[in-house]
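Quick question: who can interpret this fold?

. . .
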Amino acid sequence: MRRRQVVQLAAAAVAAPSLSAFAQAFPSRPIKLVIAFPAGGPTDITMRQLAENASKHLGQQVIIENKAGAGGSLPAQNLQISPPDGYTLAQIPLGVFRLPYTTKLTWDPIKDISYIINVTGYAFGIVAPTDGPIKNWADFVAYAKANPGKLSYGSTGVLTSPHLTTELIAQRLGIQLNHIPYKGNADLNQALMGGQLMAGADSTGWAPLVEAGKVRVLNTWGDKRLPKYPDVPTLKDLGIDIVQNSPFGIGAPRGTPPEVVARLHDAFKKAMEEPSYVQSLAKYDMVPIYMSSSDYLKFAQDTFVREKALVEKLGLLKTQ
């Protein structure tokens, strides 16, 4: 036993300087940050600003790669085939934590991701075209009750927070809706403008359409009303006790050296604090939501449990 311990200690002593040297040299080439939604939407625009800021603190470029679809889970899946060297990172949307309950996975969202930092969360709401029949939330509910399953609404994907939260709202109100998923905000907005939908559930990527007078906001999903839309009720204002802001952050492959995780955390934290990032978020009524690596892991663990309850409540839990 003593001989084995000596060998293990010797191996650790050899490995420690090697890891330290790697961390000190990191990064020596550009870093790829994969995000879960298409170019041009609020996630893409704000994360590009964050990446630009982080590049200055890391001394290497952080390059954004868009991988949309599969409910926002493709970046996290990409981590499972990437080396744990800190050069491939991924946005981790909230939907990742409900994946094991809705589909068969060969990886674990908690154990197989190194959580680096949480950076922000979305401001959500439901909107309707101004030239359509729905003028306010009361109209939405009345139409849905009079026409079960016929009120069409779009979201940014099946099992995303906009989709599941809207279905939870419908369940609370005893109404049936017709959900139509899209790959991202741009496609959803195009469908709204093309008359293919009666409503849309999304983060505030619809803000430019509101400003142009093309859609109206029926409700928002935060704990408080959005400063930009002070007359728009929250779900709580409407008697629906639901708050959804879907925090998200950045992860790396399992086994990424702690020194590299710390280097990335510190660079992205500084990037979050720069006015340019705060201003880019403000365009979409988003704010910085910081969680350290350990706090973000704890959030992931708690959310993993909570999302199972939501999926079960909606009857979407996979049967095998």
Notes: The first strand starts at residue 31 and ends at 35.
